[in-house]
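Good morning C.,

I know you're traveling, so I'll keep this short. The sequence:
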Amino acid sequence: MVNVGRAAKAVGTGTRLVVKYGPQAKIAWDNGGRKAAEATARRARSLTARRKAFTHAATVVDGAVLRIAPGGSTAYAVLSGDQPVAVYPPQEESLDTLLAHADLSRRELPREPGRPALRGRSRGD
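The tokens, ready to paste straight into the viewer:
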């Protein structure tokens, strides 16, 4: 059985802490917590778009992926050779407009199934 005295003391202590630090915790959440949650969601969407782009590039002849930043957000363009095929996440601008000033030498090739992904960039590029 639960010791009622200990449970009452724990509830009382918890209540005092909520009353004392609750407003500060709300301010901290408003200032940092929401921003962190939004940044985490934005990063998850970017990783999903990247995964879709590399999956698509693996199915295209001479497929490659180029990371671009239209309007300050990250997007991934799928290329077949030097021709743009698609962009993830979908953008309102045309593919030619998005890639007008892009450096095509920064393309990344999709990895072969069963091979580990390379970490980092080589110093020779």
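Safe travels,
E.
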